Amino acid sequence: MTVLFINAAFRENSRTNALAQKYLSTLTDDIETVNLGEEDIQPLQKASLEKYCKDSHSHEFSDDMYRYAKQYAKADEIVIAAPFWNFGLPAVLHAYLELVCTQGLTFDLNKAGEYYSLCQAKKLVLILTAGGNVPENDCAISFIRTLCKEFWKIDDVRYYYADGIDLVGAYVNSKLEKVVKQYGNS
Fold first, then answer.
1. Which segments constitute the Flavodoxin-like fold domain (predicted)?
2. Which has fewest Cβ within 10 Å: 9, 18, 137, 148?
C-alpha cells in the first residue's frame, strides 16, 4: 500500500508537520511525500484553465501539470498536513487540490451526470493546527469532506486538530499530545 503525504505545513519547526510525522510513524506502508513549499504550484488561471478544460475533454494528460492528479489517484491512503489559516486552507494546498481534481484522472461523470471516483484511496486524514479556535462549521474540513464525498468517494475521512495553540496561557504541549493520543483510538 502507498500513503501519499501532502505537506502544506512547511514552515521551519512547524507544529502541524510534527503532528503529521507522529501520525505517519504509526504506519507501515510506503510513504510518498509532496512538500508543497518546494513545488511550483500555480492556481489555474486563464491559459492554464483553458488547457485543463481542453485536456480533460479529450483525456490528454501528458502535460506535467497532471502529475499530482496521477499520483493522487494511485495512492491507497491520503494524509494532508496543513495549518488553519484565515478560516481555511493555505492557498498552495487549494491550488494543489485544483490540479488534483482533474476530470478523467481522479473522478469522472457518468451519463446521468453523477460523479464516480477514479481514485484507489479509501481513507483520507487531515491534520491541522490553529493558533486560534477552529469554528464548529469551518471551511477547511468541510471543503475536504465534500471533495472526498462527491469526487473521490472516500468514506473514511478523519481529521485531527489542535486549536488555540497561540492563545495566551495555552498549554500547547498538552494540546498537541491530546491529538497524538487520538491516533491510537481510531
1. 1-184
2. 137
